[in-house]
Every structure is written in structure tokens, then in C-alpha cells.
Amino acid sequence: MHTSTVPDNPAQRRVEEVLAELTGSGVEVGVQVAAWRDGELVVDAWAGTADVAEGRPMGPDTLVPAWSTGKGVAAALVAVLVDRGVLAYDAPVARYWPRFCAAGKERITLGQVLGHMAGLPQLPADVTPERLLDLPTMADWIAGQRPRWEPGSAFGYHAWTYGVLLAEILRRATGRTCDQLLREELAGPLGIGDELLFHVPEHLASRVATCYDGGWAARLERMPPGAPFFDCVPHGVLPVAELGNRDDFRRTALPANGMMTARGAARLYAVLACGGELEGVRLLSAATLKEATTGWASGVDRMMGTTCTMGGGFVIGDSGAKPVRPAGGFGHSGSGGNTAFADPAHRFSFALVKNRMTVPGLDARLTSEIRTALGITSD
User: Measuring CA to CA, which of 3, 27, 240, 379 is 20 to 30 A from 212?
Assistant: First the structure.
């Protein structure tokens, strides 16, 4: 365990105790946790190991593959661009990407892509990691596909295609890559340009944590073989440790995924929890933030079979057995137990990133511990 610069407080002490216990016992390998309250960093803790073979410790600036936690980062980036008039939620994707209108997709909007309502969750049945990471070719393939359902009539998790679609839309609308936009329009202004990324540039490669399986792969394997999720995300590109450790995966800027520190993710969500402004930096207007974080669709996810509410790329509230986000909160979780969210009602944000991929559960424990220590009620 390493010493944080956060002033001593009950929440920080309790999180340090939990992380020391979990990494010391081998339940976790390396973990980072950060939380903000009322515009102040109140928890900044880390423990364990970033790479076991190297003996490299987990540090506060270690970049962790946080998987779909990056979808919330992408949603925030799009909200910033909508706020500036560069994009519009109700604009047809074909406005930015003319070829996309093929096969009955001419009326699919940017908002439907963000809300997983476009009906395009599928990848080619024979897709390989190499093919998935060839984003121009993959985008061209998706542009030729017919939606699996009437766009806007239902939603189903677009696990990888969310990122392929957004990367192409952003590139065509702005002339910049998604990672350039993230650095220049969001992470850079917040002072976390090296802590919130869609891919890892060469000069930061030595800071990346190695992923380890802790039962996550087995959980995916237990899903029914005919489940819609497997129909759209073949086994060769499942979000497991082996994929997360590939150099080409880490180098590819795919905004369905994120490489981040807990501190960076929590800072972003602190801005969102405080109405779009933090420490004198306004990221976006309160009106656009409200639009992006209002429920756009609610019901049963066609791919996952779970019940949830989706906003503009954010999951709203939490319908899980052990809720992490409060009813008015929003954010996104990633494979293996990673998560980040904002709770505007209490001006609170939280992020957990870790490199041992397990079934979620630590997030609920830690948020409960922190809320109790800070005196935040569960209303």
C-alpha cells in the first residue's frame, strides 16, 4: 500500500484498509480507487501489483485496461461536442458518414448509437482480434449491414460496435481521431491527458497494468451458447485478460474501451456530478449534461437479458442485486469489475479500476464503505 496525498479522513482510511486486505490475501492483484465529494478529492488509494512477472507495483498513475468503463468516457466526449454544436444527438449518422445510410439505416441517429438502439450490435461471425482492430475495415463492414431490429424501437448492448461506430463518426465529423478529441477537448483541459485514454501511446506503454483472469472468463463461458450476446460477440473477441494484454489492442483507439487511472476517471465524473464545471473549468453546459444523462430508453436489453435504463451513452441508475449507482446517478461499468459514475444529488463521483478480472462486487462494497464514511445517505 502506498501513501496518498489526500488529507486523512475516514473514507480514505477505510478504503486503504480494504485494498490492503484484498491485495495482501491475493483476492485482488492491483487496484486503484478514487472518489470526489463537493468538488474535492476525498479518496485516492491504490495497492497491489501492476505486473506480477516484473514485480512492478500498482501506482496512482498506472494505466489500467478498464474495458467498457471507457464507453462512459466516450459519452462524455460526445456530450462536450454536442454542447459546442459540432454534433447533434438527433442528427442522422449519415449526415457525417454518407455510406452509413445503406441497408435501411438512413434514419439512425447519433443518439440511437449512443443509447444502443441502432440495432447494429453484431460483428462478423469469423471476426478475429486483428480484424476487429482494423477499424476502417470494420466500420465499412458495419456500414453495409441491415439493423437486427427497427432502430429506436428497442435497445441491446453494442459491446464493440459502439466503439467502431463512434470512432468513425467522430473522425468524419471533426477530422480528428477519437483519442485526439479526448485529449484536446476533455482530458487535457481537466489536467488528466495521460490518465484517460482510448489507447496507449508508445511513451506511456510502460505504465500499463497487466490483466489477470480471476473467474471472469469462466463467467462468460457459462452464458448459454445461443445467447444473443455470443451471436454478436464471437468467442475470439470476448473481453478477457488475453485480449487486454495484446499490444495491438492497447494501441488501437477504440472508444468502446478505455485505458485509465481511477483518479482520472473519478475527476471526469466529478465534473459531471457538479453540473459540468470543476475548479473553474467548465466542460459543458448544465442543459446538455441533463440531456445526456436523462433516461432515453428503459427495459430489457436484447443482448444481455438484463433490465436497465440508457441515456446518451451512460447507464442511468442501477437495477442490479447490489446497486452501485444511486437512482439519479449515471456512469458505465467495464468487464472484470471496473466502474466509474457520478451521483449529482450528492455531488459525488467514484471510480474503481483493477487488473484481476473478476465478477463485480468490490464496487458495491467500496461505494457503501465510502458513502457511510462520508455520511451520504442512500436516498
Answer: 3
Q: Which of 352, 368, 369, 370 is nearest to 360 (CA)?
A: 352
Task: State what percent of residues in the chain have pLDDT above 90.
Answer: 87
Predicted confidence (pLDDT) at residue 179 exceeds the cutoff of 60: yes
State how far the Cα of 204 lies from the Cα of 369, in Å rounded to an integer: 33
Indicate the domain borders of the chain: 10-374
Query: How far is Cα 90 from Cα 211, in angstroms, rounded to an integer?
Result: 38
pLDDT at 134 over 70: yes
Determine the pLDDT at residue 322: 56
Total-model pTM: 0.96
pLDDT of 379 higher than 60:
no
Residue 28 clears pLDDT 80, i.e. is over it: yes
Instruction: Determine the straight-line distance between the first and last CA of the chain, rounded to whole angstroms.
Output: 33
Query: How much is the pLDDT for 348?
Result: 98
Residue 324 has pLDDT above 90, yes or no: no
The CA distance from 372 to 19, in Å, is 17
Q: Which CATH number fits domain 10-374: 3.10.129.10, 2.60.40.1240, 3.40.710.10, 3.90.1720.10?
A: 3.40.710.10
How far are the Cα atoms of 87, 93, 95, 347 from residue 79, in angstroms, in the given order?
9, 16, 18, 19
Q: Under a CB-based contact definition with an 8 Å cutoff, are residues 161 and 148 in contact?
A: no
Helix H or strand E segment including 114: helix 110-114
CA pair distance 369, 275, nearest whole angstrom: 25
Task: Provide the pairing of β-strand 307-310 with 297-300.
Answer: antiparallel
Q: How far is CA 305 from CA 159, 224, 269, in A?
A: 14, 12, 27
Per the rule left: phi > 0, alpha: psi between -120 and 50, beta: everything else, 145 is: beta
CA distance 29 to 209: 10
Q: Which SS3 state, helix, strand or coil, does residue 51 take?
A: strand
